[in-house]
Structures are given as structure tokens and as C-alpha cells.
Amino acid sequence: MLEHTLDAQRGVLYLTPHGPLAAEDFQRVAAEVDPLIADHDLNGLMIAADKFPGWSDFAALSTHLRFVREHHKHIRRVAIVSDDSLLSTLPSVASHFVAAEVKHFPSADRAEADAWLQAAG
């Protein structure tokens, strides 16, 4: 399950996975975010996770990749908030595939990550 909260006023989307990601997770997020990004880009996206949960099946992976492809140009910054070593390397990999600036923050620095996202506006 992928918990999501959209702060439309500040232009920040918060994602927190609580288990393997499913295709429906990305469809729900897109349904809420797409109307907003039709008018203007998001300042940021925060992904807060203890560890990367993986995907429930190949359809979930495919939907996740499609979601990134269709949305990355509408997000200025991405903050990865985690102490997981795999997720801490994500910014260096993601920078080759997404237009957004991507930065890792330790879990204890969530408030700093949030301030960094809001400063993108």
C-alpha cells in the first residue's frame, strides 16, 4: 500500500509505502495529482520509507515506471527520506532518468527535507 497526501497549497506530494507497491497505488495517486499538475508543476515530492518495499507484481513495476515517465517533468524536487542504504543511493541513479532535482535525507531530517521541497517554489 502507498499512502499519499497532497498539500495542494504548498505544492508538495508526500508518499509513504507500507508494503509492496501495487498498480492501483499509482493509479490512485495519479487521479489526485493529475488535475493539479495540469495547471502548474509541483514544488516537490517526498518519499518517506524505512526501506524500499518492492512491487507486488510486474504490473505494479510497469505502472510505477509509467507514472514516473508521465510525471517527472512536473515535479521540481524529490526528497528521499530514509535510513535505508538502497534508498540513499537513489538520487545518483534517478538523476539520469528524471528532470527533478533529487536529494536524500536521513529520517531524522524530515523537517529539513520538507523545507527544501517548499523552497523550490
From TrEMBL:
It comes from the Bacteria. Gene3D superfamilies: SpoIIaa-like domains. InterPro entries: SpoIIAA-like (IPR021866), SpoIIAA-like_sf (IPR038396), STAS_dom_sf (IPR036513). Signal peptide: none annotated. Pfam families: SpoIIAA-like (PF11964). This is SpoIIAA-like protein. It comes from Posidoniimonas corsicana.
